[in-house]
Design brief:
Layout (H helix, E strand, L loop, with lengths): L17 H13 L4 H10 L2 H5 L1 E3 L5 E3 L7 E2 H8 L10 H20 L5 E2 L20 E3 L4 H18 L7 H16 L3 H4 L45 E2 H21 L3 H21 L1 E4 L3 E4 L2 E2 L5 E2 L12 H4 L7 H10 L7 E3 L4 E3 L8 E3 H9 L4 H13 L10 E3 L2 E5 L5 H16 L6
Antiparallel strand pairs: 1-2, 3-4, 4-5, 6-9, 7-8, 9-10, 11-12, 13-14, 14-15
GO molecular function, one term: hydrolase activity
InterPro entries: 6-hairpin_glycosidase_sf, 6hp_glycosidase-like_sf, GH125
Protein name: Glycoside hydrolase family 125 protein
Length: about 450
C-alpha cells in the first residue's frame, strides 16, 4: 500500500465532540503518572476524528483509512468503534457514526463485493487494470467476507448503545438483502458466483488464481472469500474467522430485521443461513493438533486441506471473543490461542524487544501493533493485558503513534507511520484497562 502517490483528500477540521474531550480529560487524571502512555493515548484516541473523518453535505460520513485516499468498510468501522460507548448522549458523535453507517449502506448497495470506496464517483482505483467489474465509486474490489460484517457490527453496536433507529431505513434494508444474497451465492462459489478478480504484474498475494475464480473448494455450508482482512489472497477460500464473523452478523441482522423491520420471513431465512455456516465451521474448521488439542484452522477448502496459522488483521482467530463468536474461556478458543501465540504459528515472531503475531502482508520478523492490542483486549488475565500495554508503549519508536508492523528486534524499523485503525485499537485497549482500574498505579 505504501506505493500509492495520489494527493490526499482534504479533511476539514472540526471541533472534537464533547464526549471525546471528556475521555481525554479523564485520561489526564488517571495516566498522569505515566506521561508517555498518556501522550500516546491523547494522540491515538482522537486520531481518526482529527485526521481521517470528513462530514459530507448529504449527512453521511467518509472515513479515510489514513495514508490512502479511500475508505475501507472494515478499517473505517474499527477506526470509530471505540467512540460508540460515548455516543448515547453526544449528538456530534451520533452525526459522525450514524452518518458513517448510512455511507456504508450506500456503498454496499453499489457493490457488495468491493472492499474500499471513493468519496465521489471519481474513478480512482488502486490498480486501474484490475480485471473485475469496477465502478467509478470503487477504489478496490477485493472481495473480503469480513468487510460487510464490520458494517453490521457498527450498526448493531450503535443501535444498542444509543437506541437510535433512524439508520434503519430502506437503504439499510436493501443492503442487508444484498449481504445475504451474496453470502448465499458464495456458499456455492464455482456454481453460482459472478465474482472474478485478477491483478496483473503484482505479487501473488494480490491476485486470485485460476483465472480469478480461486482454487477449488468443496461445498461446506460456509461462504467463500477471495481475500483476507489483510487484503492478501486466501490460500483456501473458506476463512474460518471471517465465517465466524458472518455467523455473528447474521444473528445481529436477525435482531435488526425483527425489531427494526418486522420481517419474520427474512429472519427465518437468515437463521437458516447462520446454521449452515456455523455447522460448516464446526465440521470443517476444527483440527486435532497433537500438542494443543482441538483448535480452529485459519482457512480450509472443504476437501481436507487447511492452513494452521493466524494473521494480525481482524477478524483473526485471536479475535474470536472480540467479534463475539465465542467466549474467551471457550476450550477450543483457549487451545487455539495457545497455538497462535507459539512458534507453531508461522506468523508468530519473537525478537529482542517484542513478541507477537505478524502477517504475510509484511516481512518475516515484523510484529503488528494491532495484534498486540487484540491480544490485550482478549487477554485471559490482567497481567497479560498490562504486559501488552507495556509492549505497545515501548515500541512506538517515539513517534507517539501506533504503526502497522515493526521489526521485533528494532521497533524503529516499521511500516505505515499513519495507520488510524491501529491507533484506534490501541486506544480501545488503554481505555478498557483504565475503566478496570489497572492503570491507576
Amino acid at each position: 500500500m505504501e506505493q500509492f502517490r495520489l494527493p490526499k483528500i482534504d479533511v476539514p477540521a472540526f471541533d472534537l465532540p464533547k464526549a471525546v474531550t471528556r475521555v481525554m480529560e479523564e485520561a489526564e487524571q488517571k495516566l498522569a503518572h505515566r506521561p508517555k502512555l498518556l501522550k500516546l493515548f491523547k494522540n491515538c484516541f482522537p486520531n481518526t476524528l482529527e485526521t481521517t473523518t470528513k462530514l459530507l453535505d448529504d449527512g453521511t460520513t467518509f472515513v479515510l483509512t489514513g495514508d490512502i485516499p479511500a475508505m475501507w468498510l472494515r478499517d473505517s468501522v474499527e477506526q470509530v468503534i471505540h467512540y460508540v460507548p460515548f455516543a448515547k448522549d453526544d449528538k456530534d458523535l451520533q452525526r459522525i457514526i450514524g452518518g458513517l453507517i448510512k455511507r456504508h449502506m450506500f456503498y454496499i448497495n453499489i457493490d457488495p463485493y468491493a472492499n474500499a470506496f471513493n468519496e465521489t464517483a471519481n474513478d480512482w482505483h488502486w490498480d486501474a487494470n484490475d480485471q473485475t467489474e469496477m465502478s467509478p465509486w470503487v477504489w478496490e474490489r477485493k472481495y473480503e467476507l469480513d468487510s460487510m460484517c464490520f458494517s453490521i457490527r457498527l450498526a448493531y453496536m450503535y443501535w444498542k448503545e444509543t437506541g437510535r433507529t433512524d439508520i434503519f431505513d430502506t437503504n439499510f434494508k436493501s443492503a442487508m438483502r444484498k449481504i445475504v444474497d451474496v453470502w448465499k451465492t458464495e456458499q456455492r462459489h464455482f456454481e453460482q458466483s459472478p465474482y472474478r478478480f485478477t491483478r496483473v504484474n503484482c505479487p501473488a498475494i494480490d491476485t486470485i488464481r485460476n483465472d480469478g475464480k480461486g482454487m477449488p473448494v468443496n461445498y461446506t455450508g460456509m461462504t467463500w472469500s477471495g481475500f483476507r482482512p489483510s487484503d492478501d489472497a486466501c490460500d483456501f477460500h473458506y476463512s474460518i474467522p471471517s465465517n465466524m464473523f458472518a455467523v455473528v452478523s447474521l444473528r445481529q441482522m436477525q435482531e435488526i430485521s425483527k425489531y427494526g423491520f418486522r420481517d419474520e420471513e427474512f429472519v427465518s431465512e437468515m437463521a437458516k443461513l447462520e446454521e449452515e455456516i456455523n455447522h460448516g465451521i464446526q465440521l470443517y474448521g476444527v483440527h486435532n493438533h497433537p500438542t494443543f488439542g482441538k483448535i480452529y484452522v485459519y482457512e480450509t477448502d472443504g476437501f481436507g486441506n487447511s492452513c494452521l496459522l493466524d494473521d494480525a488483521g481482524t477478524p483473526s482467530l485471536l479475535s474470536i471473543p472480540y467479534i463475539g463468536y465465542a467466549a474467551a474461556d471457550d476450550s477450543i478458543y483457549q487451545n487455539t490461542r495457545k497455538f497462535i501465540l507459539s512458534k507453531e504459528n508461522p506468523y508468530y515472531f519473537e525478537g529482542k524487544v517484542a513478541k507477537g503475531i505478524g502477517s504475510p502482508h509484511t516481512p518475516d520478523g515484523y510484529v503488528w501493533h494491532m495484534a498486540l492490542s487484540m491480544q490485550g483486549l482478549t487477554a485471559a488475565n490482567d497481567e497479560e493485558m498490562l504486559a501488552m500495554i507495556d509492549m505497545l508503549e515501548a515500541t512506538d519508536a517515539d513517534t507517539g503513534f501506533m504503526h502497522e508492523g515493526f521489526l521485533a528486534d528494532d521497533p524503529n524499523v516499521f511500516t505505515r507511520p499513519w495507520f488510524a485503525w491501529s491507533n484506534s485499537l490501541f486506544a480501545q485497549l488503554v481505555w478498557k484497562a483504565m475503566q478496570r482500574g489497572l492503570l491507576d498505579k
